[in-house]
Amino acid sequence: MSLPISSVPGRQVGFRGVPLAHGMKLRSSEENLGDEKMDIDFGALLGGVSAAPTNPRELFLTLDKKGSFSFLRDVQSDVLDAWYADPDRKDSVIKLNVGSGKTVVGLLILQSSLNAGIGPAVYICPDNLLVEQVIAEADHLGIETTTDAYDASFRSGKRILVVNVYKLFNGRSVFGVGEQRIEIGAVIVDDAHACLLTVSDQFRIELPNTHPAYAWALQAFGPDIKRQNMFGHLSICNADPQAYEEVPFWTVQEQAENLLSVLYQHREDAELRFTLPFIKDIIPYCRIVMSGAKLEIQPVFPPTDLIDSFHRASRRIYMTATLSDDSILATHFGADPSKLKEPITPSSLQAMGERMILMPQELNSDLTINDLRALLVDEASRHNVVVIVPSLKAAADWSQVANQVLIGDSVSSGVARLRAQHVGLTVLINRYDGIDLPQNACRVLAIVGLPEASSLVGRLDAAVLGSSAVGLRRQMQRIEQGMGRGVRSADDYCAVILFGSELTRRLISKEGHEMLTPATQAQMNLSKQLAAQMTNASISDIQSVIGRIMQRDRGWVAASKMALLHAPKQAGLRIDDSQVAVKRAFDAERYNEHTEAAAILSQAANGATDEPYKAWLKVRLAEATNFFDPSEAQRILQSANRLNRRVLRPAEGVAYEKLHGSKADQVVGVQNFLRDRFLQGPERILFSQSLADKLVFEPETAEPFEAAVLDLGRALGLHSQRPEREFNEGPDNLWLLKDGRYLIIECKNGSTTQQGISKDDLGQLEQAMSWFRKRYGFDVPAVPVIIHPLTSMGYQATAPAGLRIIDGSKLDLLRGAFTDFIKMIAADVALGDPTRVRSALTAQRFTEAAFLDRYTVPPR
What we know:
By secondary structure, the protein is of the alpha/beta class. The longest helix has 18 residues, at about 760-775. The protein has six domains: about 5-45, no CATH class; about 55-75 and about 85-190 and about 310-320, Rossmann fold; about 205-300, no CATH class; about 355-565, Rossmann fold (3-Layer(aba) Sandwich), CATH 3.40.50; about 575-645; about 665-855, Restriction Endonuclease (3-Layer(aba) Sandwich), CATH 3.40.91.
């Protein structure tokens, strides 16, 4: 007697690609068969084939699919064939442009691995929103998934576990930390670069200034922070959130055991439960930074091998868009760079949709943020517009016109709204990756301003590496990630607007352009051709061009597709050997191989040609060396300081180096500065605008303001220095005019008082004058200058003799004159003509004889 259909175990041929065992009998449809029942052996139709297919393309054909999954795209087939040619390599890299069907590829690879007996299988996503998307995709494909790591079907290799990256990488991971609780055979890391920031966050301890361990740290580390920067220490003690200083590595190493004891007492606190298990054994090798708001403890790279299940997985597949820096595969995910082969890519870039990339300030340097805001508000009345800004502070400028502002937990629901309806203008705060905004979810995408580091360590490194190739590459990568949010398939299209003087300058620079991927370069080159037809375009002209992509102008569509068609494939993986060396050294230190770590870092530092990066590497070398030769570590640190004054200072401080003048003409100083820093005229104009943007009276902007004053002096052909920052003594800025006079400059651009210049502010300037006389002598001419919104004296305040003030009106005048000056000499033909440079200096009153009279006023 045949079994009733409801009693037959399993499902019909094709479900999950696993055929029925030979001899299993399924009853045929009883419709129109009358009383006579027939037993049908469908298993016999398999001809004895019982093994589930492992070739992903064959597997796809056997799945019980739903909806539109009738065939694979060419790009998916290309990638799957390439992967299946060598499926057993431990680490594989798959690069697919957004919208190319990465999810389907990843699911088929994992199911193929399960069919080959390589399991359990895990699909890692950057966030829960993408977890839901992967599960929905798997359901349409007919592949079984689960989100429960304890699911027996997952453990036995019958279902794929889909989780966000937090689930795997946390100090209480269900997979085990330092042990293997749950085995992983094959794992997909989807959108690997988006997962990167999360992984870094999970290996970082952050404690607010209200936490007991913060108070202990301020007392324990305070004296050494004070020796690094007295004013910075004072600001931290007064809870200034913008003030931050790194704890010297020798102090970290000395206090590591005591710090661990303090943290252990609070191990169950929310801030420590999921991070301390990662950090507890490596505190001596961590960097510690204190601000007025929080304490950060972070290793140079996350030791992800502590998740043993991930470390020992037989197959680890990293899926990513074709981004420019692949070093993270080794530094953050532990791949062996010597065994990483060529990335798996499709034969064509055509799968990427259209992006019309516009940089308004490249088209017309006079366009302002208000012009852009008006354009985007108007566009938002017809389309969904998304603006990505780097910080909460930057978002404040958009709050009055935004329909929604998204940060943190609000992002998922806000993105869901965009995908479902017309919202208008949405602001995303510091979110450049891990978000899909297909089709009408985003038709206009604007990135306003350079991305900012999200951690204190990141901010410190950005200050050191900002002008280096390493710093530029990090920024280009995040910008390119952001540019990809609005185009998610081959038939998608989006206008991308990039705004901000510094952002535009870096993108149009030769170095920045070369760091972009071939597909983005092709679209940027197309946009440059477009820009050539739009010289001095108004904001209305720009909006008119955006309208052409929205109206699906045939000429634009054809040009866009042709540009991608002829774009070259990216050649190989882009791995920074020096970053890999730092990771190798870090791992050596973890096993107490300090001399080996120092040898690795010494070779990396000696091979670096970029001075800011060389200095950064030398600090890492000094850290390793301090374990076995503290004196040599200080010597190395002294050497690093000569290359870059922004890095840690040696324990005994750095000897002050006087600001000496040369006999060279001011014109020569201008020419040398602009030629060395900027290769082209547009870059010089954008630099002047970026500098002017930083010279504003605004609280909590001391660092960028003082850095801008430094560059302003140099751009005017003067000698300029930041003694307080570089040597922990003296004024905020020191300028040497060509006539031999020194300007002792204190910056109080963050002052909000309405009661006149305070006694304390003028007292600091008086102390700076005393320092100058001690260092330079009483017979050297010096002028005290304070940059302050007001010109009147506050209660009991006394002005130093000869005081000059750059107040609000004079600062505005200075900003405008500087941008005009650079425009006058930006072109190579003008900059190369000493007469024209001198004429421009005279016209803007930037000569030493006229500067103080024009741009400063006496106190009143």
